[in-house]
# Entry
Amino acid sequence: MKDELAARLAPYDQQHLLAFWDRLDAEQQASLAAQIRAIDFELIRRLYQRRDSRDDLRPLLARTAPPPAFRLDTTQNPFTPEQARRRGHQALDAGEVGAVLVAGGQGTRLDFPQPKGLFPIGPVSGKTLFQIHVEKVIARARRHGVRIPLYVMTSPATHEETAVFLAAHDRFGLPPDELRVFCQGSMPAVDAATGGLLLESPGRIATSPDGHGGLLEAAARNGVLDDLRRRGIRQLFYLQVDNPLVDICGPEFIGYHLLAGSELSSQVVAKRDPLERLGNVIEADGKTMVIEYSDLPDDVARRLSADGSLTIWAGSIAVHVIDVALLRRLSEASHGLPFHIARKRVAHIDSTGRQIEPSDLNAIKFERFIFDLIPLARNPIVVEVDRRSAFAPIKNASGAKEDTPESAQGLLTALHRSWLRRAGAEVGDEVPVEISPLMALDAEELAAKLPRGTRITQPTYLA
Ligand code: UTP
# Structure
């Protein structure tokens, strides 16, 4: 077996993967052989060779225009919020909407030892991200008297703990056949200097999840697309695990998507600053696409349109509605989404078996991004949302400048306090408050349930 594997590796200069072969027991050898056979070495070589050849985006960016958008605070949109809500309600009432939650990331910046979904984020309740998301799905489904299946995408890095956690908590009340956990693929990490694959241990190749864009392939491979067909689900609401403010399956957003005949709609916020670190949704040459902030030259980012507003104004918050037909069409066409290159720190063993904990960006990871679906979709649109009610990213550990658990909790509390005040309650600025999704999904629902004259003077969780 060793010779066969060596012959497979030799054309790609990857024979070092067998350096410890003779020390492995039979089971470990079989496992390493299976790992090697599953890798597309030709693809890895091609991606590595192209690692520094970034497309020159300047000519394209010179032709940039704002994307087709539904904006806040304007009467210029082709449909009103009321029309959109009505259309969204219809789709929800018809049971045509499902949700997909991507939770396969390694969450390295957060520095939390478990999958991010297990992070306790409720400012008063201490509920985990998973529980908050699941309860929103349950509440939305109840409101419309339908089932909203929730698909949770994990990765080899998060799968086991996520599945055990959700099962141990009885899926936080979601019936077993309405929650489906499926695992995305992974890609080997390579040494940035040589392109050689890294060994995590003598019998294990270092790999990482293949990006949230791995959803396309993973949904087809794991029977999610078949399941959607069987249930008659036509639109998938997409969210990422690290934003507890997402208004899951909110009817207005779904309504704009359907009224515009869009196959992929994206929630965006108006950037606070031209250089804000968000993906930028733009249109160029008739195509809508996302340009990463790292690819956007400062002068282009600052460019103004004729009316004096920022041309590149729309910052993606990674919340989408995706037409299932698009996923089906692309998974049949199947070259998959392109891979992007990320330089990261990856621990590994060296040729003597010594454990290396690098302090520099020693490795390259290959990831697919969900937003690469946008240019492939028909009539993609963006829908502007108010960031205070939609966007509380948790990326960094406590103490960092932004996007920390504390900043997210502050945003959650502020939103819920504003709902309480709109419902007529008295609540002090310093008092921590939190509203369970099962109590209310929005200010109107809260107002209908909250007793008159409510006064809140101490930390309160309304459930
Ligand atoms: P991020 O790009 O913020 O990555 O993921 P991350 O892995 O969570 O965190 P860092 O960069 O290591 O600190 C955004 C969302 O996409 C999901 C994450 O779980 C998160 O919900 N994701 C990311 C996947 O599902 N799979 C991946 O391969 C990568």
